[in-house]
Amino acid sequence: MNLARIRERIAFTILGLSTLFVILPIFAIVFYIVKNAIGAISWNFILDIPRHGMREGGIYPAIVGTICLVLGTILFSLPLGIMSAIYLVEYANDNFFTKLVKVSIVNLSGIPSIVYGLFGMALFVIFLKLGTSILSGCLTLSIMSLPLIITATKEALEAVPFSFREISLSLGATKWQTIRYCVLPYALPGILTGTVLSLSRAAGETAPILFTVAAFYLPRLPRSIFDQVMALPYHLYVISTQIPNMPLRLSFATAFVLIVLVFLMNLVNVILRIQFRKKKQW
Amino acid sequence: MCIREIKESVIEFFIKISGFIIILFVFLIFLFLLNDAVLLFKDFPLKEFIFGKRWLPISNPPHFGIVPLLLGSLYVTFFATIICVPVGIASALFIAEIAPKFLRNILKSFIEILASIPSVVLGFVGIVWLGPFLKDTLKLNTGMCGLTGSFLLALMALPTIISISEDAIISVPKSFKEAAFGLGATRWQTLWRVVLPSASSGIIAAIMLGIGRVIGETMVVMMVTGNAPLVPKSILQPLRTLTATIAGEMGEAISGSEHYFALFAVGLVLFIITFIINFLSVILLSRSKK
Description:
The complex is a heterodimer of chains A (282) and B (290). Chain A has ten helices and two strands. Chain A is mainly alpha-helical and 282 residues long. Chain A has a single domain, classed as MetI-like fold. A two-stranded antiparallel ribbon of chain A has the order 1-2. In chain A, a hairpin with a 4-residue loop joins β1 and β2. With 290 residues, chain B is mostly helical. Chain B folds into two domains: 39 residues; 235 residues, MetI-like fold. Helix content of chain B is 77%, strand content 1%. Chain B has twelve helices and two strands, in the order ααββαααααααααα. In chain B, β1 and β2 form a beta hairpin. The longest helix of chain B is centred in the N-terminal third of the chain and has 39 residues. The interface between A and B is large, with 87 and 87 residues.
């Protein structure tokens, strides 16, 4: 073996070890949480309200709160996200305005989540007088999830072959009919995966909901979209930093439920992607 | 026919409006931050805000010097970057060029799992495990310090760095590699001398986007860095970042008070920093695509 080969061996080993360094903590974290949470997880924990200053009982209101937030977020961000992506792919000319839209999307994706929280508070809670409510929280989270949805939808639309559009247009369909019947249906799986991905992020976010919706302790279910709610990530933050003498097993169990929720959404994503690949015929 | 045309133009109108709304959001965010931030400078000198070394919002008179917070953010970001950049690029190389196909898919899904772990969960792990662990192994006064935050932030930035670098590495034209092999180079020599330099602007963009994520991350640093708003002397001390200050104090700040406006000013600083980082990385990425 000559020197170059030996050097190659060493280099590849180092690269492999680095990858191991990335993968190991993931296992360690997930394993650590699962191991410590498994004893505290029960139906009672999932379906009961928090009791005794959150030191006992369950996390049902927080789970419901997070689900409300996620569903509300789709309602706002999906239509707007899809329309903007359609604009960029199907309608936009290569001009200054289009460039501005693209730069704006990138910048939206880079804005820190806490700045979204500040903005949501200033615009929705105070300026539009929506108060700390589910509505304010959902609106804030939707703006935050737009970039991911737009990017995913854009890729999905671009992946539909150009000939589909040409054929539809040549048969006399209008531009919108073409998009509606010949492009969107084929881009749908890609759009869905992007949406689920961005929602799984939204479900885990804490900073944007701190001042827009999250309730420290509210052991009942929301009655309207102007109610505050508890949310899983904020609840985990509260019980792990703000409550003295908090039994750790409940914190672990909350972290576990949050992770399971997010992973389930990712699993849906993976299944969608596999289905998509199977069906794709072009 | 006429109705159809009207329908068409209405839909087209809405689609164009939605593009406009995206731009509007960025402007609105900037405007709302600016609007409340400038109110601070009616009574509090701008110079004092930028160069002040004391952040004492509820003392009398209050001090809103951003230096300790800015340095806190820079410290954790710097150390997180040192940790995650070499590891991230090495993993990206491994995943893109060395790993066999089945392993590549497995590794990529692990990276996705890492990206999806909520930051508050990592913060929690930092509190109950990593903090105490570092305290014991390094014999520190407290585990709630900059270093704990840096480790967790590095972990959070890795998915961004790895996936964007990997894209950049994969998009290096095959002919470059073939030419190098043809000249008798080993795979490693090709990677090191040909692939890496050609992918460099994409990799730099990946690093910058990773840094942008680290600077903006809130929950992890608020939970594990100890939240001491002092000018940090070492990464092993408790410190506090820009993001954690907003998240930690906004709940107590009275709406319309100087403190409240000061937190918006901090938010504006964060917005500007991340805006610049993202803008530069877009330029780099578009260059790397050419």
